[in-house]
Amino acid sequence: MLRFIILITCANLVFAFEDPKKYPDLDEEFYTLSIIEPSQKVGYHVGDLVQRQIKLTVHEPYTLIEESLPIVGYEKRFRGQLLGITLQNIDKKIYKNELDLLLTYQIFTNNVVAKPAFITADYYRVVNKKNPEEVLKLRVPELTIAVSPIAIFGDIKVQEDMSDFRGPVLIQQQQYLNKIYISAVVFIFSLFVLLYVYTKFTILPGFRKTFLPLHRKLKKDKDIKIEEIIKLIHGQINNYSEASIFEKNLKDLYTKNSSFKFIEKELILFFKISNQKLFTKQMKENASVRDWLIFFCFHLHLCEKKIPVKNTDIKLIKI
Amino acid sequence: MAKKNLADWLKSATTLEKQINEVILGQENPIRLILISIFARGHVLLEGDVGVGKTTMLRAVARGIGGGYERIEGTIDLMPNDLIYHTYLGDDGKPHVDKGPVLRSGEDLSIFFFNEINRARPQVHSLMLRIMAEKTLSAFNQEFHFPHLIVFADRNQVEKEETFEIPSAARDRFMMEIPIVIPNNDGLMTDLIFDTKFHNADELITKVKTDQLSFDQLNNVAAEIQENIDATKELEKYALNLWKATIKPQDFNIKISDIDISRLIVSGSSPRGISMMMKCARVNAWMNNRSSVLPEDIHQIFHETIAHRLVFNPVYDLRRTEISRELTTEIINKVSAH
User: Fold this and answer.
1) Neighbours of B163 (CB within 10 A)
2) Chain A residues touching residue B336 (CB < 8 angstroms)
3) Given B230, B234, B337, which is nearest A244 (Cβ)?
4) With contacts defined as CB-CB under 8 Å, which chain B residues touch A244?
5) Hey, what domains does chain B have and what are their CATH numbers?
6) Which H helix or E strand runs over A310?
7) B226: closest CA among B43, B39, B65, B42?
8) How far away is chain A from the Cα of B194, in angstroms, using its nearest Cα?
9) Distance from CA of B268 to the nearest CA of A (A)
């Protein structure tokens, strides 16, 4: 079994390293070859794609051996060294004896040395249909391009690569400047958003929406009665602490968020006002109490956001 | 004596409370609850270990309110007639019949203490419950009335041997069940050990002045308190929700660890129970010098007036004391008053 595997591996290696040049050349009268080369010859970078279109017609009695066409993913070597150019895709159309090939190579080299890059010559094989023993080759010439814009010796001449449709190869700083400007604007905007989120003015959908929306609602609604305000504040305090909060169990609220301790005096006053209004009916509509409740609601919002309320900001009223 | 108004009564009640607190150390809350029950005219179950001062406390209260104070010990051989009379051969060699503890003070009986009621047989419970409910007793072809009577009964929850548990229907007739525990305060505990004045209960209770509250006027005062202390619509709604929560706690998102709350309650508070709770809350508001009931007035008496009425699934009944405390606390914490 081991011998068989070694044999198969060796046979494959032999085939892989088969030299296509050993076959005799096909006479030019038996084929027609036209190649559309990319117009850009210089200034390629890593990741750029290079496309060659090859049209080949093989005349009778010969026919193309399809297996001799280039293989996708195979990276070519030149003098034993990897070129850094890989065939990425092959778009193949064959109609009778006509072959239309679109070869897409991708550049993977960033060699900084000023020298040309090759797409080396390919050798396609043809076979005589009347005499299968006769296998010949035809040569598709190499394409020489430059990876670096200053790699201009040899076949590459920049002055011959001045297409009207493609500007000269320059380092365009404007696009980078644009990106920097946009990034700076986004960054500054993000800072503003962050500042907004962490200040007392925050109101975002689904985010810390307990007391600030209520405060805004109370500020807008001039007709709302004290009793309604008290109930709404109680409701939000209970929602926030997930318990029914009374003066006696305020510690449950502090456990949830210790910032509420800063306004303990206001909380106690709120419960007094609440008891007077809801359970003793001793309190009548009173603008100062109403204003205080709205102010208190804003302090609740600050505590919810863990913004400390200073002692000097604590405001108490007589009831 | 000139007729006292509610403010005068409150002053007297506060003075009595203060005096009892000087006699019984570290029991401020039970003493407040006992006074509430006296002004709400409801019977009380006391729960606690032996020797924590229940009898002394009741004797002090009885001294303060005046009237007759009687006491009986629950034992397995106690029969109903032992409450009503006892017979003996007199010096003259003839049989005599004397009135028992229930009849001894006649209509003036103000406090009757039934110690370890769960050691007595159900027949005795039955008689006691009738006296509690109707405040009358038929004996010797005669109807006896006890218009000022409040019964205090003690049950020992720890020992279960040779006891007859009071059924839930009977428990419901008690307005409160008050737990009495040893004060958790080193200073007070040291005083109880070393201050010799606490070693002689008879001497100790003499520090409470007698007849401060006039037991025979308490029924009228209680009615006046109930009439004069208001409860707003908001509070009515709150009390209603509390009641509903005792029946279906799961509807109020009440959770207790390791307990399937939907299976816990077999029967919630009775209408009688919840009305007794409101009666006590009104008295509590009055004792706090308010003319309206606040949710806090209910909180203070909620556990004591409701917990003993709840009928638990037998699976959980063995842990009754612990679960009922957690349940009532959760109800207060979850049911919103506003």
Assistant:
1) 17
2) 234-235, 238, 244
3) B337
4) 332-337
5) 6-216 (3.40.50.300), 229-334 (1.10.8.80)
6) none
7) B39
8) 35
9) 21
CA distances from A101 to A35, A227, B313 (A): 9, 84, 85
DSSP A64-109: E-GGGS--TTPEEEETTEEEEEEEEEEEEEEETTEEEEEEEEEE--
Neighbours of A237 (CB within 10 A): 24
- Only one residue has tokens 């030299």, namely A19
Q: Which residues are CB-neighbours of A216 under 8 A, at least 6 positions away?
A: A203
Summarize chain B as % helix, strand, coil (round to 5). 55, 15, 30
Q: Does the ipTM surpass 0.85?
A: no
Residue indicated by tokens 């070519």 = A76
Instruction: Specify the pLDDT at position B148.
Output: 94
Confidence class for position B1, pLDDT limits 50, 70, 90: very low
Mind telling me how many Å the CA of B290 is from chain A's nearest CA?
9
> What single-letter amino acid sits at A161?
D
Which pLDDT tens digit goes with each residue over B10-56?
Answer: 999 999 999 999 888 889 999 999 999 999 999 999 988 778 888 88
Judged on CB neighbours under 10 Å (0-12, 13-18, 19+), A187 is exposed
Q: Which residue has the tokens 């700083």?
A: A173
Listed in sequence order, the DSSP H helices in A198-225 are: 212-220
Instruction: Give A 181-240 residues with CB within 8 A of chain B.
Output: 230-231, 234-235, 238
Phi, then psi, of B152 in degrees rounded to 5: -115, 125
Identify from A267, A279, A281 which residue to disrupt to test chain B contact, counting B C-beta atoms within 10 A and taking the largest count.
A279
How far is the C-alpha of B70 from the C-alpha of B235, rounded, in Å? Answer: 38
CATH architecture assigned to A20-150: Sandwich (2.60)
| Residue B333 touches partner A, C-beta closer than 8 Å | yes
**Alpha carbon distance B52, B183 (integer Å):** 9
Q: Which among B233, B294, B332, B335 is the top mutation candidate for probing chain A, defined by the most A β-carbons within 10 Å of its own β-carbon? A: B294
CB contact under 8 A, A234 and B294: no
Q: Cβ separation of B295 and A235 shorter than 8 Å?
A: no
pLDDT above 90 for B198: no
Chain A interface, best mutation among B282, B302, B333, B335, by max A CB count within 10 A:
B333
Question: In the predicted model, is pLDDT for residue A81 greater than 80?
Answer: no
How does pLDDT run across A84-104, given as a tens digit for each residue? Answer: 788 889 998 988 888 999 999
What is the reported pLDDT for B247? 94
Task: Provide the pLDDT for residue B35.
Answer: 95
Distances (CA, A) of A247 to A250, A251, A264, A269, B123: 5, 9, 10, 9, 47
Residue B81 has pLDDT above 70, yes or no: yes
Are A109 and A78 in contact by the 8 Å Cβ rule? The answer is no
Record: contact A230-B338, CB cut-off 8 A: yes
Inter-chain contact A279–B294, Cβ cutoff 8 Å? yes
Burial degree of B118 (CB within 10 A; 0-12, 13-18, 19+): buried
Local structure of residue B208 (DSSP, 8 states): S
